[in-house]
Amino acid sequence: MKTLTIVAGVLLVFVFVWERVDVVRVGYQIERLKTQKVLLERERDQLQVKFSALTAPERIAKVATEKLGLVPPQQGQVLMVHQPGDVPGLPLPSVEQVRLARHDSTERVSE
Amino acid sequence: MTAGPSRGRRYVMLLLLICGFSVILVRLVTLQVFQAAELTAKADRQHQKTVSFEGARGMVSDRHGKVLAMNVEVPSVFGVPTSLESPSTVARHLAPVLHIRSDELERKLQQDKSFVWLARKVEPEQGRRLEQLSLDGIGVVMEGRRFYPKGPLLAHVLGFSGMDGLGLEGLERQYDLDLHGEKRVTVLQRDALGRTVFPKGLAEQVPTPGHALTLTVDEVIQYIAEKELEEAVTRTHAKSGTIIAMEPQSGAILAMAVSPRFDPNVVAALTPDRWRNRALTDTYEPGSTMKIVVASAALEEKVMTPESMVFGENGHMVIANTTIHDHDKLGWMTFSEVIQKSSNIGAAKTGMALGEQRLYHYLQAFGFGQRTEIDLPGEVSGLLKSPKDWGRRSLASISMGQEVGVTPLQMVTAVATLANGGVMMKPYVVSEVRDQKGRLLKEVLPQVKRRAVSQDTARTMTTMLEGVVTNGTGTKAAIPGFRVAGKTGTAQKIDSRTGAYSSTQFVGSFVGYVPAESPRLAMIVVLDEPQGEAWGGAVAAPVFRRVGEQVLNYLGVSREDTVKIALAMKDH
């Protein structure tokens, strides 16, 4: 009985010590993960800034005109086609008429 | 006999023990009581690390969520001069990385201080290179730096924040309380190797970032406005320029472009003159665009109808010993033609028919002489004297847009009132404030300021202003396929040397809305001191057309002839 008590006591001490050591170990692990999270968040923010800079309308327009040779649409080259009811206050053609406009729009562009 | 020496030894031992314990006791008392405070502080310095956390400044994005301003953590470099053996060697190593002169760094590192900033908020790449160098006595900490990824786009509205993260100009200043992150100081425990030991409850200690702002501005419309404004300013050699585009039904600002532009990422070398938002801080005499208000007042008060006949005095009229001129020798004309042809004499006669009190009432009703209360800093109220301070010529002068100072924002808000059926809306730039988790904290809804004129008057004015673009001074503002309502303005500036109106310095402007029958866009274009031909109809109206055409295309607004085209195609 006495031996059992001693063994139990020693075990308890071991459990206590192990628990304390593990708390510290997990603590370090948590800190490492937090650091990793901070670094990833920082990288995400840097990429977000880069993305925003690359998608700036000024840059896109520059690349479109200078690199790709695109030009802004000229007068009469843009034809809006709406589903009925899209634009309040404007009398819109029937669906059939809209389809006609869409179908023939390329011809008008070349005029 | 043996008890004597044995007892003696025991006493000696006891005495030694008492002495020993007494020494320990005295030492303990000294350490624990007398030196307690000093030693505790020393231990704390070794075991603890005080860290100041500051939540990131909130993000600013346009109406479609495109990022316009955000914080990114970047390295800041500091030195500990007291721990350096050779400041000159360290300075030589640092100079090429930080792009700072070696002698300047050396001077900082020779100071008798335990901490000096060497370079704050540098590029991440520079931080990485410094870490590779691993110089003793040189450290790197991360700090939040404000980035404006679109460069100069919308810079006058966004403003900028300082090195310490405080909003200094524009929205950054106006919404600083919302944008700035929480500041918190935390004490962390360190182990023998200097590592941070289990920062208890660190998750709770992380300070909350600032709130995010969503703007009413559309970055594409803003870009179109800025691009066209820059081109116009360059072409006309104007001193500066402004374009404001507004949604008439809500007062939401779609674009606010000011030239010359500046990049808020690099403001250190600029003067305040460069970042001032002229759209709401600078006043100008509007000239003929003010006739819109005079005409609206005359229609509302039934002093005039569009068909009323007005005599143009063949281009000359004497009022209070001064002569008012028109650009043409105009005779009899309808009131609509007074506006179409922008007759100064017609406007002066209209103003005189209204009288001082009624004209003043409508000037106030359209928001002149008072701030629009837009959510941007630095707005001025303009200049509108009370009738008791008016001179004998004031009634005529004000009717043609002189003796009154307005901001471009006031003028576009006034004209948007007509586009909105006579109801004035409060202009605004921020539509939503959200917390870091995206929860809506504040939603700004369109706010009616007042009804300035009746819907009938607004409708009649629209027809008259359409006449300006179809047959009058503003034909260059016409956008094919759309009905445009607007008014040109050309105002002489006061020559600061003579105090009289200058014959060489003008402000050319055009203000209007489109499509006239169902306005989606109210816009003003102002060019300050364009060289050469300075008429608003010649310099500002074409800019209105170019911006208007692109914006309407972008917004997907149907051309008036879409229906006709579709019908014509069906016939074929």
CATH class of the largest domain in chain B: Alpha Beta
Domain count of chain A, please report it.
Answer: 2
| Poorly predicted residue ranges of chain B | none
Bin the strand percentage of chain B. 15-25%
Largest sheet of chain B: 7 strands, mixed
Q: Assess the beta-strand content of chain A as a share of residues.
A: under 5%
**Rg result of chain A:** 35 Å
What's the CATH H-level homologous superfamily of the largest domain in chain B? DD-peptidase/beta-lactamase superfamily
Over the alpha carbons, how many angstroms does the gyration radius of chain B reach?
35 Å
> For the residues shown, what is the average pLDDT of chain B?
89
By DSSP, the count of extended strands of chain A is: 0
Q: How widely separated are the two ends of chain A? A: 107 Å
Question: What features would you describe in this structure?
Answer:
- With 111 residues, chain A is mainly α.
- Chain A is 71% helix and 0% strand.
- Chain A contains three helices and no strands.
- The longest helix of chain A has 53 residues, at 2-54.
- Chain A starts with a helix and ends with a helix.
- Mean pLDDT of chain A is 77; it is low at 88-111.
- Chain B folds into two domains: 51-80 and 115-131 and 140-215, Penicillin-binding protein 2a (Domain 2); 219-563, DD-peptidase/beta-lactamase superfamily (Beta-lactamase), CATH 3.40.710.10.
- Chain B is built from 22 helices and 23 strands.
- In chain B, the strands form seven sheets. In chain B, strands 2, 3, 4, 5, 10, 18 and 19 form a seven-stranded mixed beta sheet that branches.
- In chain B, a hairpin with a 5-residue loop joins strand 18 and strand 19 (440-443).
- Classes of the chains: A mainly alpha (111), B alpha+beta (572).
- Chain A binds chain B through residues 23-24, 26-28, 30-31, 34, 38, 42, 45-46, 48-53, 55-58, 61, 72-73, 75-76, 78-82, 87-93, 96-98, 100-101, 104, 108, and chain B through 66-68, 70-73, 124, 142, 147, 149-151, 153, 195-199, 202, 219-220, 223, 227, 480, 517-518, 549-550, 553, 556-559, 562-563, 565-567, 569-570.
